[in-house]
Amino acid sequence: MMEQTEFSPTKTALIIIDLQKGIVRMPLEPRSSNEVVQNAGRLAAALRSRGAFIVVVRVTGSPDGKDRLHPDCDSPMMAGVKRPDDWADLVPEMAPQPGDHVITKRQWGAFYGTDLDLQLRRRGITTIVLCGISTGYGVESTARDAYERSYEQIFAEDAMAARSAAEHEHVIRHVFPRIGRVRSTAQILTVLG
């Protein structure tokens, strides 16, 4: 039996990774982008109403693409793909509310090259709840960086998805339990009461 997850909402940040139009349009597993967005929205509403800090993260590059990473890879991400103009626009359900913080990142993780750690520490945040797309890239990269900065972490497993069910399951079973607590949206909402 999984032990109860307790945390103080006023010392907690919900970090929502890459729920933007270009990413939610991709085929995802083991759940649809609609389910991920709905669960993330439920978490945001509940946590926001209890004084948590909400951080909405999106990823994009400069218009000329010169700030993109270009190392040689066997399977480069989005090589040669032209992104639509609205690719980096947040989905309407993730529109920032007053008091929310929006971060634009240039790579997978939300800490590197952004003010995320600064904003969390200035607010006395000790726990983060993570959700978004993709489980094994943006979410995992952010989670690993958060762990190295000593944040307590809760992973909203059903508010995440990946390009394959195998990718998602690997991270949920083998990575996240070593650096935090894996819970469902319902379990997190139950703790909030």
Structural description of this entry:
It contains six helices and six strands; from the N terminus they run βααββαβαβαβα. With about 190 residues, the protein is of the alpha/beta class. Helix 4 (about 135-150) links the parallel strand 4 (about 125-135) and strand 5. Helix 2 (about 35-50) runs parallel beside helix 6 (about 185-190) and helix 4 (about 135-150) runs parallel beside helix 5 (about 165-180). The protein is globular and about 45 Å long. The protein starts with 11 loop residues before the first strand and ends with a helix. About 35% of the residues are buried.
Topology as a string of helices (H) and strands (E): EHHEEHEHEHEH
| End-to-end CA span | 20 Å
User: Which regions have little confidence, pLDDT < 50, spanning 5+ residues?
Assistant: none
Q: How many strand segments?
A: 6
The pLDDT mean sits at: 92
Quick recap:
The chain is 34% helix and 20% strand. It has 193 residues and is α/β, with parallel strands linked by helices.
Question: What's the structural blueprint in terms of helices and strands?
Answer:
Elements: E1 12-17, H1 21-24, H2 33-49, E2 53-59, E3 101-105, H3 116-122, E4 127-133, H4 135-148, E5 152-161, H5 165-179, E6 181-183, H6 185-192
Parallel strand pairs: 1-2, 1-4, 2-3, 4-5, 5-6
Helix pairs in contact: 2-6, 4-5
